[in-house]
């Protein structure tokens, strides 16, 4: 049994706490929502943990995570270990690790994949940090990862920052996969000869080279709404797709699929695209092609 402090009990953090408890570990959770929190403050959480402590942070990336790490740098003691399991940018990890190392506190960055289904199915974990810290936290990782061979749901990607870097690339790939499925869905919907689009996509789940968990989730969505017309075609991005493209540029790695998928998300947020208005105007100018005026 391992004792763990877990900060951030949102959609993923809450389910992680329950999965860890089901595996027999003691988890003391903190969240700003008192209805799900086990403690009233970070200080109280630290007081309830036996030394040397392990604390896992699952709060939004950026300033919320940075401030939480700063707070823990004052609350934790030499020999303790802090894990950032949020979607932080890998460049933040070196800063966090150096801040904590100055006080003898260990640091691991963990990319976590699995979403709301992780409690049942387990989480894919990508870890960055020292081997000794990884070994210390391994009972926690083993409880969270999917059943089966460790190497199929867990990876020690490298030094500090490598876990979040791996998760960033993972999410960039995810952008491209989702966009490909989405474009296939739209093409099937547009084809007059295809009578049952949901059945076609459901039939891809076994025996085809495009089968995947994402495809299963698309089938689930189509079971609930066969034409997906209850939704608006508006898609946000969490930032990791952008970071992936930045790194592709920095390393001179061509990434046309991921870039197209990210730009498609940008396009989804435009009610009226200035660029496409310019394209319509140009087609009208050089070829006399018809244009649709505002209000028509």
UniProtKB/TrEMBL annotation:
Q: Which GO MF terms are attached to this record? A: NADP binding; phosphogluconate dehydrogenase (decarboxylating) activity
Which PROSITE patterns does this entry report, sorted A to Z? 6PGD
Q: Which domain of life is it from?
A: Bacteria
For biological process, the GO terms are:
D-gluconate metabolic process; pentose-phosphate shunt
**Keywords, A to Z?**
Gluconate utilization, Oxidoreductase
Record-linked Gene3D superfamilies: N-(1-d-carboxylethyl)-l-norvaline Dehydrogenase, domain 2, NAD(P)-binding Rossmann-like Domain
Q: Where is the 6-phosphogluconate dehydrogenase C-terminal domain?
A: 163-296
UniProt protein name: 6-phosphogluconate dehydrogenase
- Source organism of the structure: Amycolatopsis arida
């Amino acid at each position: 049994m391992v004792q763990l402090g877990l900060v951030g009990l949102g959609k993923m953090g809450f389910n992680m706490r329950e999965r860890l408890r089901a595996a027999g570990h003691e988890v003391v959770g903190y969240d700003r929502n008192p209805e799900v929190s086990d403690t009233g403050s970070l200080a109280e959480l630290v007081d309830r943990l036996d030394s040397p402590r392990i604390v896992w942070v699952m709060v939004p990336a950026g300033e919320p995570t940075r401030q939480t790490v700063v707070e823990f740098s004052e609350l934790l003691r030499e020999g303790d270990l802090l894990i950032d399991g949020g979607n932080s940018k890998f460049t933040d990890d070196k800063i966090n690790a150096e801040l904590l190392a100055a006080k003898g506190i260990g640091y691991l960055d963990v990319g976590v994949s699995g979403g709301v289904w992780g409690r049942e199915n387990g989480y894919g974990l990508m870890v960055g940090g020292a081997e000794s810290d990884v070994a210390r936290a391994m009972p926690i990782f083993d409880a969270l990862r999917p059943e089966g061979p460790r190497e199929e749901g867990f990876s020690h990607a490298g030094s500090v920052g490598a876990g979040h870097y791996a998760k960033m690339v993972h999410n960039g790939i995810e952008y491209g996969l989702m966009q490909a499925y989405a474009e296939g869905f739209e093409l099937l919907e547009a084809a007059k000869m295809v009578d049952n689009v949901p059945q076609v996509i459901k039939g891809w789940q076994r025996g085809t080279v495009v089968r995947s968990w994402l495809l299963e989730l698309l089938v689930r969505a189509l079971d609930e709404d066969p034409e997906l017309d209850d939704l608006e075609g508006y898609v946000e991005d969490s930032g990791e797709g952008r970071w992936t493209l930045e790194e592709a540029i920095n390393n001179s790695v061509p990434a046309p699929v991921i870039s197209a998928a990210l730009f498609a998300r940008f396009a989804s947020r435009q009610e009226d695209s200035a660029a496409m208005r310019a394209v319509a105007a140009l087609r009208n100018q050089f070829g006399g092609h018809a244009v649709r005026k505002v209000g028509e």
